[in-house]
Amino acid sequence: MSEIKTLSTSAPIAMSRPLLGWTFHDSVVIARSTILASFRIPEALFFQLIQPVIFVLLFAYVFGGAIPIPGAEPGSAADSSLYRQYLMPGIFGQTVAFAAAASTVGLAEAMQKGIIDRYKALPMSQSAALIGNTLANTLRQILVLTVLSITGYIVGWRINDGILNAIYAYLLLLLFAYTVTWVGAFVGLSVPNTETANTAGLIWIFPLTFLSNAFVPIDSLPSVLKAFAAFNPVSSLVLATRELFGNPTGYAPGADPGFWSLQHPIAYTIISCTVVIGIFAPLAIRKYRNVSGR
Amino acid sequence: MAKEDAVHAEGLVKKFGEVKALDGLDLVVPRGQVVGLLGPNGSGKTTTVRILATLLKPTQGIAYVNGFNVEKQSDEVRHSIGLTGQYAAVDEFLTGRENLRMFGDLYHLAPAYVKDRSEELLEWFDLSEAADRPAKTYSGGMRRRLDLASSLIAKPSILFLDEPTTGLDPRSRLGLWGVIESLVAEGTTVLLTTQYLEEADKLADDIVVIDRGRVIAHGSAEDLKDQIGGDRIEVSVSDITRARDAQAVLAPVFGGESLITDSLISGPVSGSTVLVDVVRLLDSQNIAIADLALRRPTLDDVFLSLTGHGAEDETTGKPTSRSKRGRNR
């Protein structure tokens, strides 16, 4: 900087319009940067991976014997093995629900640090920052689900219904992750600062995951909570993945769950995800256009 | 004619709820010039830049940047400008090179061009060695340079610098000034906001002083200093109870209104024997002097003279620790 050098003055060379359009191009650029950045914080990545693993171990070994699963003698070895089979899809569901947190915190931070301002002053697609962020946080779940599946395998969880159904199950989990990241994005743009994003921004995820069939069969719940849990998309997601992985569903074979959402868990999951994205993606994009950072 | 200027804004009003951040602001930045927007915190500097950079819509008024309407042709405006904010807005987890690549890609520039341009900028900003380290590890000055480099990737003809050196140490500040001067020498138009008269003085051809969302003065740094009457004298008396006496006895020395803050009396003066006169007058009344200084006017003086309040006062009128204590230099 001290020497007198001059910058070249030739005109900048523009890129030709990509085949899939600028919004897609810009979203990929943002997603790439977001993923790259997340690998630069090994601690955060580590804890993001270790948290679901701790949940697996806690539930498998601490609560495992206490929660009866239809189809086995309570307290027997078969029962606790069945519970682990039952548990893993619940942990998968809970884990992908927490993908929302990364979007909430990430966007609140980007806003506070003025990065959103910079994006908005660039001639880029105005929705790409959000599409890229939600995409990145969803893709990162692939790594999380891989680690989780390996842990599950170690404690006795198995894929029992073929690889194709298992792939459907994982895709359903990723669809759900993508859905909640949009809700998370909206929350992240709505909170006043990162501190709030870290606390209040995540508080809705806890009841969402615990008021479901993720860890206990919902038949044990009082009727009002039971109805809520039945229509909670986490329940349909978890039930759908249990069926697709060939794991115990919590219902005796042939038993009727009594709610449409649980009679058709795959359909209900896809419908509810579509509806939630349909509501929150436009809300988040509108919020993004209107926020003025800091 | 509005379209010939790099920036042309007329009657900008911006309301945030009940608060009027801008109250009919007019601003012209001719092409190739540096205009300094000078004002205290909360005076509307940042709001003005944010409107011109298409980040905010004005409540009223119209603005053109590079001949494009900021509201109706925001995409064209964004292609014409570079924006460097008060906070270094780079992704701190990405390296310097990755940041430049990301912003280059988002400007829709050809990958090969982005690569060459990044290398050039990294070298020019003295960041080559740090190019592959996350920006998190950079010093404040380095981050600010990376921030500025990011806004230069597409060679914008107009650069908005919002308090580019706030919070930097003097050495980094000098370095950044050098960079800005080189850019201007190459024909870039710059709109610079600052709280420092010295900075505006050093860089700007033209200074626009704003307060409470309006332009209150306009001209070169010399014009502004002359406007408030040249040199000032500041006398601090040992005994605070005698400050009023001191002000009275010094009345013949001051060429205009003098101010008193605790034990400090200050006012505009002229003439070369003025220091001697001050000492003689105070001594004749047995008023002990704790400190005595003759100095060139500062931004604070410009503000005191133009608005009746100091540059660092908040417009909310709440006394800050600084304004309570007196003035700061």
What is the helical fraction of chain A, as a range of percent?
55-70%
How are the strands of the biggest sheet of chain B laid out side by side? Answer: 6-7-8-3-9-10
Separation of the first and last Cα atoms of chain B: 41 Å
Whole-number average pLDDT of chain A?
Answer: 89
Low-pLDDT windows of residues of chain A:
none
Radius of gyration of chain B: 23 Å
* Total strand segments of chain B: 14
Helix run count of chain B: 12
Give the ordered list of helices and strands of chain A. Answer: HHHHHHHHHHHHH
Q: Which chains share the greatest interface?
A: A-B, 39 and 52 residues
Give the CATH H-level superfamily of the largest domain in chain B. Answer: P-loop containing nucleotide triphosphate hydrolases
Radius of gyration of chain A in whole Å, from Cα?
22 Å
Task: Record keyword descriptors for this entry.
heterodimer; A: 294 residues; mainly alpha; 13 helices; 68% helix; elongated; B: 329 residues; alpha/beta; Rossmann fold; Alpha-Beta Plaits; 2 domains; 6-stranded mixed beta sheet; 4-stranded antiparallel beta sheet; 12 helices; 14 strands; disordered C terminus
Question: What would your notes on this structure say?
Answer:
The complex is a heterodimer of chains A (294) and B (329). Helix content of chain A is 68%, strand content 0%. By secondary structure, chain A is mostly helical. Chain A has one domain (22-290). In chain A, helix 3 packs across helix 7 (163-190), helix 6 crosses helix 7 (163-190) and helix 7 (163-190) packs antiparallel against helix 11 (233-245). The two termini of chain A are 31 Å apart. Chain B is α/β, with parallel strands linked by helices and 329 residues long. Chain B has 2 domains: 7-225, 3-Layer(aba) Sandwich (Rossmann fold), CATH 3.40.50; 229-325, YebC, transcriptional regulation domain (Alpha-Beta Plaits), CATH 3.30.70.980. Chain B has 12 helices and 14 strands. In chain B, the strands form 3 sheets. Chain B has a 6-stranded mixed β-sheet with strand order 6-7-8-3-9-10, sandwiched between helices. In chain B, helix 3 packs across helix 4 and helix 3 (96-106) packs parallel to helix 5. The radius of gyration of chain B is 23 Å and the shape is elongated. The two termini of chain B are 41 Å apart. In chain B, 47% of the residues are buried. The model of chain B is unreliable at 313-329 (pLDDT under 50). The chains are: A mainly alpha (294), B alpha/beta (329). At the A-B interface, helix 1 and helix 5 of A face helix 2, helix 3, helix 4 and helix 6 of B.
